[in-house]
Each structure stands twice: as C-alpha cells, then as structure tokens.
Automatic annotation (TrEMBL):
<dbReference type="GO" id="GO:0007283">
    <property type="term" value="P:spermatogenesis"/>
</dbReference>
<keyword id="KW-0378">Hydrolase</keyword>
<feature type="region of interest" description="Disordered">
    <location>
        <begin position="1278"/>
        <end position="1302"/>
    </location>
</feature>
<feature type="compositionally biased region" description="Polar residues">
    <location>
        <begin position="1115"/>
        <end position="1130"/>
    </location>
</feature>
<keyword id="KW-0677">Repeat</keyword>
<dbReference type="Pfam" id="PF00567">
    <property type="entry name" value="TUDOR"/>
</dbReference>
<dbReference type="GO" id="GO:0005524">
    <property type="term" value="F:ATP binding"/>
</dbReference>
<dbReference type="Pfam" id="PF04969">
    <property type="entry name" value="CS"/>
</dbReference>
<keyword id="KW-0221">Differentiation</keyword>
<keyword id="KW-0217">Developmental protein</keyword>
<dbReference type="GO" id="GO:0003724">
    <property type="term" value="F:RNA helicase activity"/>
</dbReference>
<dbReference type="GO" id="GO:0042078">
    <property type="term" value="P:germ-line stem cell division"/>
</dbReference>
<dbReference type="InterPro" id="IPR027417">
    <property type="entry name" value="P-loop_NTPase"/>
</dbReference>
<dbReference type="GO" id="GO:0031047">
    <property type="term" value="P:regulatory ncRNA-mediated gene silencing"/>
</dbReference>
<keyword id="KW-0547">Nucleotide-binding</keyword>
<feature type="region of interest" description="Disordered">
    <location>
        <begin position="1071"/>
        <end position="1136"/>
    </location>
</feature>
<protein>
    <recommendedName>
        <fullName>Putative ATP-dependent RNA helicase TDRD12</fullName>
        <ecNumber>3.6.4.13</ecNumber>
    </recommendedName>
</protein>
C-alpha cells in the first residue's frame, strides 16, 4: 500500500498525486526541495542569458519555466502555444506540482541535464478496471438501463472529488502501469472508516468493473524496448517518468545527437537514488548495452545505420538476467543472498508491471524478489534464512511492533531482516555488519522470546536473570539499558538491571538483584566479579548476548572465556534440558576469537555477514601485500602472476580506469597469458567476456582486467585470485572485489588442515605504493585481523605514515586521554595530537606571569568534567586579580543603566552575563539563528573564568567594557595524576564523577604542580586542608586521588607522570631542563606561584608521603636536583644556578633527628649500612647525600640561622651518620629549618641535656645564690623536719618548638 497526497483531480481516470513516505518509487521529499533550491539559484542568475533560451518551442517539449504563483522555477511540459501581439504564450504543465499555468516565452528556459535526474514528483493515477457508466434510454423498447460510458458525468466527478477532500488518509494499491499512468485500487479513511473508492463508485452506480484487456498492459514476454518506435513521442512510456531527460531529446527520431543516450547510460550507472549503496545489476546492464549499441549506431556510417535501426533489446533478455542472478550459489553450508536495496529495480518495475499485481503475495515482497537479482550479492549466511522484509512480517510480538511504529522505526534493515528470524527462534547467531554496534540487531526478537514464559518453566524457581547482555564498556551498557527500558514497556515486566560493581570484594558479596530481574546489562569485569562471589545467581541464564564481540575479546579476552565457561557449565544441567540455550554475538569486524567461540561454545550457529570485506575473513581468503614503487607496479604484477598453475586459475586484476585496463591487459598478454578486459566503454562485449570466462580447462590460467564499475555487470563469484593493481577507492569497493571469490569462501566446518588450506586458498594480492600512503594504516589493521604474513617493510612504512600524520596534527589539541592517563588506546585512529608542540604548549599567562611549572598552589575547582579533570582558578594569596575584577564587575552592573544588551552578537567576542546574583565574563562559541529570521535565538558561550559552557539567550548578553576584558581568562584545566578508571575503561563512571563533584566543586584545595602545558596543569597530590587555629597546625580532610581509589572505581596509574615527562623531554621545550629538574621549592622562594603557608606545605608533603609510602619505601619520594652533591658551589649565591644544571635523579629523603646545645646543633641521619656519603656545608645550608644499596638518599636543608661551615663535621656513630654544626652565635634556636619538613623531627632522647644547658644559661647566677642559701638553712633545721629539696620548674617546650622548623 502506498500512502499518497492528492494534488489535482480531473476525474477518476485522471488524478495526480505525490507518493509519500519511504516508497521504493521515489526519492525523498528533501531531494525535491534541494532540486528547487538549486534551480532557483541557477536560473535567477542566468535567465537573461540567451544560451539557456530554447531555439524553438514545440508541444510536448520539456523545459523549465518561472511560475508567478509559486515564485519559483519549475520543471514543465509545454502543452500548447498561443501567438500574441508581442510574444508567445505557452500553456505549461508543471510536472512536479500538477498545475497548468500560462507562461510567457521570455520565462521559458532550456532544462539543464543535472536538473532532470530526479523523476517527476507528480504521478498520474487512475482507478484500476473501473469505468464510467450512464443511463441509456431505448425509446424503441421503452426501457432504460445502466451501460458503460466513454466519459465520466459531472455527478460522478463531483462525488469523487468530495470523497477525496473529506478523507484524512489516502492509500493506493498499485495493480498495473499503462503508458504514463498508474492503475490502482484507491482507499480513503473517513472518520476512522476505511473505504475502497473503486467499490464505492460501483456501489453508487457511478461506475462498473471491467476485465483488463489482454493488450492493455505491457507484457514482459511480448514488449520490446524499441527506441525507434514511431509512437514513442505520442505515447509516453512509463520508463520515461523516471527519466524525463529523454522527453526533450530527438535522438529517438533518428537525429545524430546522442547526448540523451549518454545521459541515460550514465544515469543508470551513477546518478539514480543517491545514498543507496550499490551499482547496476545484470538487467540494467542489458539496458545499458542497448543504449550503448544505439549510440554506436548513431555514429556509424549510413550503410550500417539502416541495418542497425531495426535492432532492439528485448525485455526477455532483461528477464533472463534477472532470473539468472536471482539465485546465487549455495555451497558448503554457506548461502549467499543478493542485496535487496537496488537502484535499477525501480526502472524494472515500470517495465515489468506483472509482479506488482495482486496474486496473494504482497507488493513489497514482489518488489524485493524483483530487486534481489540486480546487484552483486553482499550477504553471506550459514544456513538458509527467509528474511523478514517488513515489520508486519517480522517475528516480533504485536505489542513490540506497535512500539517500534510509535517510535517511527523505518522497518528492518538489511541486516536486521536476516538476523531477527534465527534470534527469535532461540538459535545461536553470529552477526557481522557495518551496523553491528546497534543493539536493535538483537533486542526486538530477544524481547519477543522472553514473552514465551512456557520456555522457562523447567528452570530452578529462584531469583536470577534469564538474559545477560555483555557490553565492552559502561557507556555502551548504559545505552543498551536505556533502549531495553524503552522497548520492555511493551512486554511483561522484565525488571532489567544495569550492573556496575567496584573492585571491593564486599560490594560484590553484598550485591542484591531486584526481585524478578530477568535481564542484566553489564561489562565483562563487573560480571566476573559477581560470578566469583554469587555464581548461583546465574543458574537460570538462557541467553548470553555479546555486544561488539570483537571489542570484548580484544580488550577482555580472559574474562570473556571465563564467562563462557561458566555459561557452558550451567546450561548442561539436566533440569534445564527443555529451556533455551542461546549465545548471540554481534559486531562490526570478524576475528579469530569468534571462530573459537563458534567451535567451542555454540551449537550449529547461524552466521549473517553483510560486510563483504569481513565475509572474506570468515571465508578464509589468503591476504597478501606487496610494497613497491608506483613505477614498478607492472613488474611486480608479473611476479605475482602464476605462469605455470598446478590447477585451473581465474584471476581478476582491478584497475582504476579504462586506460589502465588496456595497459594491464597488453602487459599480461605479452607474457603469454590469456587476458580478457572489461571497462565501461566495452559494455557491448559483455556477453563474449562472460562466455570466455566460463570456458576454463584444467591446468589453464585465465586473467580478466577490469574496473570496479564492471563488478555488478559481470556478477563473477568464482575467481580464485584477485589482484588489486590500483588501490580500492573505498572499503565498499574493496569488499566488492573480494566478493568475486565468494564461491570459494569456506565455512568453519569445511576448513581442512593448514597445509590443505594453503593449497586451495583463494588469494587477494594488494599492490601498495607510495601513492597509497594514507591507506597503509587501514591495510595493516586488516592484515592483522586476517592473520596474514605482514612484511617488515609494511610496519616500517606504516610507522613513517603515522609519524607524518602526527606531524600534520600540530594544530590539533593534545589528546585528552594522553593528558588524563598518559596513554592513548589507539593513536592510529585518534584524531588528536600525541606529541608536545613547543609553539602551542608553552604555559599560558594568567596575569603577567605564566602558569607555575612546579611548586605548591591553591586552587578552586569550578567545573568538574570527570573524576580527574576539572576547570577552575588558581588563587594567589597576596594579589587575587580575579577577585578584584569580579567585585568591580558586580559594582558596575548593579547600576541598571550599565546593563546594555547586545544588538548584534559576534562570534568569539567577550560579553557580560548575569547569572542569579553574580556577573560573569563569557565568550560566544556558536550561534544558532531562528528559521526565517536573522535574529539570533540562543548562543553557546564559554565562561572563561570557570571553564564551563552553556546555552544562553542572546537577550542575556551584556556589553562588557574594555577594562573588564584586559585580564586574561582565569579558567585553568587541572588533571589529577596517577589514577585511571578500573577495568581498562577510558571513561570515568558517572558515579565517581558525581561523588567527586559534590566533594570538591567550589572548595579551596591545596595542590602540588607536577607539570604545566598550555592551559593545563597536572597536580599530585590535591588535598583539602583544614587549619586548626587553636593548635597552630593543619589537618588533611581528604586526598582526591585517595577518594577515587577508595570507591573501587579507579586503579593506580604509576606511569602517568613519567610518560608525560618523556614527551616533554622529547619535545625540546624551551627551559624544559630547568622546569623539570627543579625541586618543587616552597612558594615563598618562587615568584611564579602563589604563596602557601608553612603548615600548608607540610600537609601537602605529608599527603604525598602517605600516598607513596607503601610504594616507595621509607621517606617521601622527590626529584633530586643534586645527584652529585659534591658539585654544589661553595658560593651560596651560585646555589640556584647549580640546581638547574644538575641531572635529574630519583632520591629519598632520610629521616633526621636533631637536638641542640648552646654552641652547636647535632643531626642524626637515621639510615644504616651506607656505602658512600658526602656532606657539603654552607653558611645557612647543609646538603647530605648517601647511597644505601641501590637507593640514593638526599637531604638539602636550609637552616634557621648561620653556622661556622669550616668547623662542621660528619662522623659515623653506631653505624649512623652524625653531623655537628657549630653555631655562628651562641644561643638557643627556635627551630632547625626555615620551612617545615615532615622527615626532620626533634630528638626527645636529648631533652634533659637541652634543659640543663638552657637552665644553666638563663639562671646560673640566681640558682647558685639560691642553692647556697638553702644549704645554710638545712644545716640549721633538724634532720626529721620533713623538708625536701626543691628543684625549679622546668619550662615546657611547645610542640612547634620541638618540630623540625620551630
């Protein structure tokens, strides 16, 4: 049934309609809109040009005219011409709108060929076998009767018009085609009642039914396509409604101009049905042959012309081609089906109306049968499958069909039509298709299967799923879960569950499935963790779905086979004998793991492969590649050819042009090999080439050189070798070439031993030259999947190509995965940059200074992109320019007169934006105009000081004064290092991102800078610190990295920073040595980063030590700036210079305990068994270094006060180094170091010694006097008086005084 829109009604024998929807008869409506737009653009600019004005005007001529009513140029046919005083007036019929309009001759232009490629939009219909009647009165017999009439009376026409105008829906069933008219049964829906108009007119005595006359319609057995027919111009052939260009050509009347024939041949091969994959089939090839023959006849001499004019191409030939190609070979368990979506079939259905007649089989099924023989097959099936071509014929439940129709589902695709039936029957199925990542390939029939509750009665009566869908990542699993939720509403409650489990064992142990949960959607790692602790939950599983199966096996191979082993064990239980057991594997690519899956875990599986290049991998085609120079291709070709074959060989050599085909054929023939050739200019020789190809004796070798556009014409499937002399222009053509060997595709059950396979394997040979450098990566990937022998030169060549591609990405952003994790899963296909560009990656400036390359900073995350990627601001403790700017902006915009809206928005300009009670600076990124208006509706903006983006109305944008634009954008990208998602995921689970968002957004954090590039700063650690003012100390509330790890959704990524710094060194960035070799010194000595307090620095270092202690051993890990401490300059002023010159070395800071005397400070280095140590002394600094085993220890200490460096010494006492530092000035130090260090602590074992020294220094004279007085008193009292000696109270030392910094 065709849904139609009625344009014009003359009578029931002539009314014009537009076919709506996805009909096979028409291109989409959007194509006509594009056509009208293109015609208006072309003729509006050129209609005054005399070159496009017709030389003469004739009735029946096709032209383009300007319609005043439609204000548009339209395609038209001239019906009549009237001569007026100063011009001609033509009555024209608009073939796309079914209108008659008068047009002045000046508004008539020649129809350009490119505008005549679409069929006419308006189609002429009439009621099938329905003729008018009238009342005939016989005065002689004195009676009246109703008899057939020659024309419709006005009452019948009026009734017909009224019924069509009142209809809410009009449908037509196509029964026949005569001339340019479609004969139909017409159905209308009025007030929800469907009526057949043919029957209604007969019932109302407006018409009667008549039997179709035998000679009324075109019959395939009798009609011929004779382009010399005299009646051709008077009666419009139905084929010409498809090809209107032929109407204006006089080639068919014998003129010498053959341009129209050229157009027909080219159109048949190239222009019909844009967007539909495929080329011509054999039937259209015969038509092309006829056209080409007639083109030749017009060019031949007059003597030959008279003989050739009598020839024609019989439609019987076309029918034979259709019949011969409908049934493709079925061998060795593989069934090959033709593509049901064929462009040339549209022409055939007009030339052969018989299959469209109602005979118990639906029109669409007839059409599919007709189409099936007109293109090379692109289906490889193991076991024969009857496809479901419509939703109505699909094996789905009624509720599910309605749900699909409500969601405007267009109908089963080519792959779905073959995969749905076996899945719905519960069979094991493997589906490989270019659309193999679409869950709708398996969800509808699987949901239908779940509706049959009787299938699962033998299963244990316990809670547990019936279906497990395994997806390669959480994103795909979430998409599948959402689709499942949409469509499961139309079935019984399934209670589906999206399963995600962290790495913690308790989470898997405590996981509870919802009661009645029949479907689980998850990933391999999550499922395996649950299986480990709750295997009994999966005793009821009947259906295991592997979504994107090739990705599952490549990224989680061990986990997948563990899951399959568990499934195989469970389904073998005796009590499950009557329950379904099904494995469904869908994917885009074929690989060797799928072979193992089919052999070991599937039972007689159905295989559906709709990608020819993947079918070649399944069919075990041997892939060979030869690298050569473009100038050496011919000699390489001769080396490849087998001149003395041991068995019969048929070789196809594919070229890119007719000229190259001629050259190749001559070269091959010159080497004594029989060579045929075929290209578009030799279509006339098609029959001869096919006959020669089939004549092949044992031990002989035949070669055919051809171009890609000849593949559907020849329909060869028995080639034993394909040589790609020219590189295929697309994967589609590559697959088409390989499909020429489909007779030799082997099913897995037919494949013999490796030795036997090598002897009889069909072979594909690819010649790769420097011209095909851009395709080398794809070729390598394909050969790897084919397990082919790959020459070392190809790896080297590909590496060079990848390097060249990487160089071309200099202006692309740095790969976000490389930034976030230190690696990219597949650089070969990633569009972003994977190297550091010194020009674009220099740290940008926030104010007058660039982003800090090292040191400690305070940050506020404003926008959380994911768990480790944030955008926010760096807070300067002393001068916060953004805070000043924000206060000024708020003050400025408080005045309503300052809020000036923007009249014209410009892209990439800065504007102000009011959001709640604050104002922001925003930059316009994209603009979306309203339809039919230049006024902008909404714009995409970026908050340049926060990093987030959003859509806002243009009316919200405010003019921003220049002084507010001076400060550079303050939003900086922060990346937390050394942690990545678990389970080899490359995207963070939303659960983690949400948790981190609530934890950190808008809060002040302390962080240590590891690296800075462009606008990105890598930090490790990032902590939130709370200061306890009463105790003069700070505590770390949380460490972001530790929080992520604690959720069980992330794992350690220890190589993250190292990989980034390798790239940094390799880029030879300016001052990179200085930036990387400097120790992150406290910000008080660094002018490039904001200041932090000593307490904050201690907290950060302590946090770092906490994170790394388990991995790095004793002491916190740092980057040493002094691998050779003895090279330090003795001049303190040269210290900074010496730091930057010394190489980088991984070192550990030793634990140090210290105490003091009045004249010296003593340091105990708490390491033993040292091999070598060095100690350098400066006026206010000490550098100690030592080796213990293979660990290098370094302590660089800036002292609180000055020492006498000449008198300092370091000795080994009790196997530990002890350093004595004489004080320059006697007295007590409040602390040892200028800045706190968690590895330096006070030695409380020497507390009493310090007290004695301190007391002696402070109260020596007073105590001596006091003790003398007490002695005198004691001598004057009796011994038993009970008085005891009194010692003065010892002053208490605060915790701060006992610490390393005081």
């Amino acid at each position: 049934m065709l849904e139609v829109l009625v344009l014009k009604i003359e009578d029931p024998d002539c009314f014009w309609v537009v076919i709506k929807g996805c009909s096979p008869f028409l291109d989409h409506e959007v194509d006509y809109q594009k056509l009208n737009s293109a015609m208006n653009d072309f003729y509006n600019s050129r209609h005054q040009n005399t070159e496009i004005k017709p030389l003469i005007l004739e009735e029946g001529q096709v032209c383009v005219v300007y319609c005043q009513e439609l204000k548009s140029w339209c395609r038209a046919v001239i019906k009549s011409i009237i001569l007026s005083e100063d011009h001609y007036l033509a009555k024209c019929f608009l073939v796309d709108f079914a209108k008659y309009i008068p047009v002045k001759s000046k508004n008539i232009c020649v129809a350009v060929e490119s505008f005549m490629q679409l069929p006419y939009r308006a189609k002429k219909f009439r009621l099938y076998c329905t003729k008018p009647v009238t009342l005939h009165i016989d005065f002689c017999e004195d009676n009246a009767e109703i008899v057939p009439a020659k024309k419709w009376d006005s009452a019948a026409i009026q009734y017909f018009q009224n019924i069509l105008r009142a209809a809410t829906e009009v449908q037509a069933k196509l029964c026949a085609v005569e001339d340019d008219t479609f004969e139909v049964y017409l159905y209308v829906t009025i007030k929800n009642v469907k009526v057949c108009v043919n029957d209604d007119l007969v019932a109302k005595n407006f018409a009667c039914y008549v039997s179709p006359r035998k000679n009324e319609h075109l019959h395939l057995e009798e009609a011929t396509f004779n382009i010399k027919s005299e009646s051709f111009s008077s009666k419009l052939n139905p084929a010409l409604t498809l090809w209107p260009m032929l109407l204006q050509r006089k080639d068919f009347q014998g003129t010498k101009n053959s341009h129209g024939l050229d157009f027909l041949a080219q159109s048949l091969q190239h222009t019909w049905c844009k967007g539909v994959a495929g080329d011509l089939g054999p039937a259209a090839a015969v038509l092309v042959k006829g056209v080409k023959w007639n083109m030749g006849s017009l060019r031949d001499s007059p003597n030959k012309k008279s003989e050739q004019q009598q020839q024609c191409v019989s439609l019987k030939d076309i029918n034979k081609c259709v019949e011969s190609s409908t049934y493709w070979p079925t061998k060795r368990g593989i069934t090959i089906y033709a593509d049901p979506d064929v462009p040339a079939a549209r022409l055939l259905q007009f030339l052969n109306p018989d299959p469209l007649r109602a005979d118990g089989i639906s029109d669409l099924q007839q059409l599919q049968k007709l189409k099936s023989g007109t293109q090379q097959p692109v289906m490889v099936l193991r076991h024969k499958i009857e496809p479901c071509l419509t939703i109505d014929s699909s094996p789905l439940s009624a509720d599910l069909k309605k749900a699909l129709q409500r969601k405007k589902f267009p109908g089963p695709s080519r792959t779905e039509s073959y995969s749905w039936p076996p899945i719905a029957r519960g069979c094991d199925v493997v589906v490989i298709s270019h659309c193999g990542n679409d869950p709708l390939l398996y969800l509808p029939p699987l949901l239908t299967m779940l509706q049959m509750g009787c299938c699962y009665k033998s299963l244990p009566s316990r809670n547990g799923p019936l279906v497990i869908i395994v997806c390669p990542g959480w994103k795909k699993a979430q998409l599948t879960f959402e689709l499942l939720g949409d469509y499961s509403m139309s079935s019984r409650p399934l209670h589906p569950m999206f399963l995600t489990i962290g790495l913690h064992k308790d989470e898997a142990k405590n996981m509870k499935l919802p009661r009645g949960c029949d479907v689980i959607v998850t990933t391999p790692h999550n499922l395996l963790r649950l299986l480990e602790y709750q295997s009994l939950l999966f005793l009821r599983v009947c259906h295991l779905v592997l979504d994107e199966v090739e990705v599952l096996f490549s990224e989680a191979n061990e986990q997948m086979f563990a899951i399959l082993d568990n499934f195989k064990k469970n389904v073998k239980m005796e009590e499950r004998e009557s329950a379904p057991r099904q494995i469904i594997a869908v994917g885009v690519h074929w690989n060797r793991h799928i072979e193992h899956l089919m052999r070991e875990f599937m039972s007689d599986p159905y295989v559906v492969i709709t990608a020819p290049e993947e079918a070649a991998l399944y069919g075990n085609i041997q892939q060979v590649v030869h690298l050569c120079l473009e100038c050496e291709k011919t000699s390489t070709l001769l080396q490849v050819l087998d001149f003395i074959p041991s068995r019969a060989q048929k070789t196809l050599i594919f070229t890119c042009s007719a000229a190259e085909t001629e050259i190749v054929s001559k070269v091959v023939e010159s080497n004594s090999i029989f060579c045929l050739k075929m290209h578009k200019e030799m279509v006339f020789d098609l029959k001869n080439v096919l006959e020669q190809w089939k004549k092949l004796s044992s031990g002989s070798h035949i070669v055919l050189a051809l171009t890609d556009d000849c593949i559907p014409l020849l329909a060869i499937t028995d080639a034993t070798c394909v040589i790609h002399f020219s590189f295929p222009s697309s994967p589609k053509f590559f697959g088409g070439r390989l499909y020429c060997m489909s007779d030799h595709f082997e099913s897995l059950t037919e494949q013999g031993s490796p030795a036997e396979q090598r002897d009889k394997k069909p072979k594909s040979v690819l010649l790769l030259t420097e011209k095909n450098a851009s395709q080398a990566v794809g070729v390598l990937r394909y050969l790897e999947r084919a397990d082919a022998k790959i020459p070392l030169e190809l790896y080297e060549f590909t590496a060079g190509v990848l390097e060249a591609k990487e160089d071309k990405k200099a202006n692309r952003p740095l790969c976000r995965y490389l930034k976030a994790f230190g690696f990219c899963k597949d650089k070969r296909i990633c569009p972003d940059r994977h190297h550091i560009n010194p020009e674009t990656d220099m740290p940008r400036k926030l104010t007058k200074q660039a982003l800090p390359m090292f040191g400690y900073i305070k940050i506020i995350p404003c926008y959380i992109s994911n768990a480790t990627n944030y955008f926010g601001r760096i807070i300067d403790k002393h001068v916060d320019l953004y805070a000043t700017l924000n206060a000024e902006m708020n003050e400025y915009f408080k005045d309503s007169s300052s809020k000036t809206t923007v009249e014209k928005v410009e892209k990439f300009r800065l504007y102000g934006l009011e959001e709640k009670t604050s104002f922001h600076r925003v930059q316009v990124l994209e603009m979306s105009p309203r339809e039919d208006s230049w006024v902008l509706d909404s714009v995409l903006v970026k908050f340049i000081d926060e990093g987030r983006t959003g859509l806002v109305a243009t009316a919200q944008l405010l003019h921003l004064p220049e002084n507010f634009s001076a400060l550079p954008p303050q939003a900086v990208e922060f990346i937390v290092c050394r942690v990545r998602p678990a389970d080899n995921e490359i995207e963070w689970n939303p659960k983690v991102t949400r948790y981190i968002h609530h934890k950190v957004v808008g809060k002040l954090h302390d962080a240590k800078v590891v690296l800075a590039l462009g606008n990105t700063v890598w930090i490790d650690p990032m902590v939130h610190v709370t200061k306890l003012s009463n105790l003069r100390t700070s505590v770390v509330d949380y460490n972001v990295r530790a929080e992520i790890l604690s959720m069980g959704m992330g794992v350690d990524n220890s190589e993250h920073v190292e990989e980034l710094k390798k790239l940094y060194k390799g880029a030879k960035m300016p001052t990179s040595e200085e930036a990387l070799n400097q120790t992150p010194t406290p910000p008080s000595t660094s002018a490039s980063s904001p200041l932090l307090s000593a307490e904050d620095t201690t907290c950060l270092q302590g946090s770092k030590q906490e994170n790394c202690g388990a991995e790095r051993g004793t002491g916190s890990e740092t980057k040493s700036e002094n691998s050779a401490p003895e090279t330090l300059s003795e001049n303190p002023g040269d210290i900074s210079a010496s730091r930057t010159l010394q190489p980088q070395l991984k070192s550990f800071h030793p634990q140090i305990k210290w105490f003091q005397k009045d004249d010296a400070v003593i340091l105990k280095i708490k390491i033993t068994n040292i091999k070598d140590y060095k100690c350098k002394y400066f006026r206010d600094r000490v550098v100690f270094s030592a080796w213990v085993g293979d660990k290098f220890y370094l302590a660089d200490m800036e002292l609180q006060a000055s020492i006498v460096k000449e008198d300092c010494k370091c000795i080994i006492t009790n196997d530990e180094p002890v350093i004595t530092l004489p004080k320059e000035k006697r007295g007590s130090w409040c602390g040892l170091l200028r800045q706190k260090n968690p590895n330096v602590t006070f030695d409380f074992d020497h507390w009493e010694e310090c007290d004695e020294d301190r007391e002696e220094g402070l109260f020596s004279k007073v105590l001596k006097t006091w003790r003398a007085a007490e002695t005198r008193k004691l001598t004057s009292f009796p011994k038993d008086s009970g008085m005891a000696s009194v010692r003065p109270a010892r002053p208490r030392l605060s915790r701060g005084d006992a610490s390393g910094s005081g």
